[in-house]
């Protein structure tokens, strides 16, 4: 697939799933706007790596996903630098694990802001340009937790269920404009986010690291394997192809059979 005339904005793309998605689009020739947290030298290494490995242009937006004005500026950066934002991937996300009665209010607010509200703000900013060009792809990274729940993850599960509803609504609004809107719902993917959950889950459930991995995380996935970041990225690329032009409003599970149960 040739995406040489396209620009992709990928939030939360300085590591993990987001970086894999940004690199996969770059491999197909797209210009890239990456965004996310991390050490400046690591971010620059990721950005420069995209340019040198794939021969495309990549810029970094430091937009804070809790700040609507900065999210709008990120979209404008793509438009002013490359002339358009054709593909928007809302991938930024954080997690916090706690019993509901102890769940810090500020953590609830932060997770809803980053995992759900940021997608609304970026879509709102990107849609006018996509409508004008009569082409666009919006891909939201949801989760198996957009379809089912797990204990101690109230904010995350609520946000991911919200992403599914947002995806369906916007897909219906944009169905006649050449713009598709879908979400990908991975199960457990081996990323820094998942790795960081392990100590919190150990504490919340009184388990060892091995028990968390095998009895909590992979217990949910019948294949007993983690999803890879490259598998998620490959699906994102497919959803941006002409072959996927009639896939819209869909929640595509990639969870080793978790939600089939």
UniProtKB/TrEMBL annotation:
Q: Which Gene3D superfamilies match?
A: NAD(P)-binding Rossmann-like Domain
Concerning SUPFAM superfamilies, the annotation shows: NAD(P)-binding Rossmann-fold domains (SSF51735)
Gene Ontology MF terms in the entry: 3-hydroxybutyrate dehydrogenase activity
* Biological process terms in GO annotation: monocarboxylic acid metabolic process
* One Pfam family per UniProt: adh_short_C2
InterPro entries on file: 3-OHbutyrate_DH, NAD(P)-bd_dom_sf, Sc_DH/Rdtase_CS, SDR, SDR_fam
Q: Which family does it belong to?
A: Belongs to the short-chain dehydrogenases/reductases (SDR) family.
Give the matching PANTHER family. Answer: 3-OXOACYL-(ACYL-CARRIER-PROTEIN) REDUCTASE, 3-OXOACYL-[ACYL-CARRIER-PROTEIN] REDUCTASE FABG
Indicate what this protein is called per its UniProt record. 3-hydroxybutyrate dehydrogenase
Organism of derivation? Microvirga aerophila
């Amino acid at each position: 697939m040739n995406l040489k005339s396209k620009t992709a904005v990928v939030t939360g793309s300085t590591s993990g799933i987001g970086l894999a998605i940004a690199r996969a689009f770059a491999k197909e020739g797209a210009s890239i706007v990456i965004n996310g947290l991390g050490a400046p030298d690591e971010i620059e290494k990721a950005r420069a790596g995209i340019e040198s490995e794939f021969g495309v242009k990549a810029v970094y937006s430091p937009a804070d996903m809790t700040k609507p004005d900065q999210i709008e500026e990120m979209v404008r950066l793509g438009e002013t630098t490359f002339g358009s934002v054709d593909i928007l991937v809302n991938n930024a996300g954080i997690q916090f694990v706690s019993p509901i009665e102890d769940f810090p209010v500020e953590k609830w607010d932060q997770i809803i802001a980053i995992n759900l509200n940021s997608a609304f703000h970026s879509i709102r900013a990107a849609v006018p340009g996509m409508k004008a060009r009569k082409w666009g792809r919006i891909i939201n990274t949801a989760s198996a937790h957009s379809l089912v729940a797990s204990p101690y993850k109230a904010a995350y599960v609520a946000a991911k269920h919200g992403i599914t509803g947002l995806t369906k609504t916007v897909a219906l609004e944009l169905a006649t404009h050449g713009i598709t809107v879908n979400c990908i719902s991975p199960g457990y993917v081996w990323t820094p986010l998942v790795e960081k959950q392990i100590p919190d889950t150990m504490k919340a459930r009184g388990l060892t690291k091995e028990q968390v991995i095998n009895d909590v995380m992979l217990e949910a996935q019948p294949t007993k394997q983690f999803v890879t970041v490259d598998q998620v990225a490959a699906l994102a690329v497919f959803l941006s192809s002409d072959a996927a032009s009639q896939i819209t409003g869909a929640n595509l599970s990639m969870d080793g059979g978790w939600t089939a149960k």
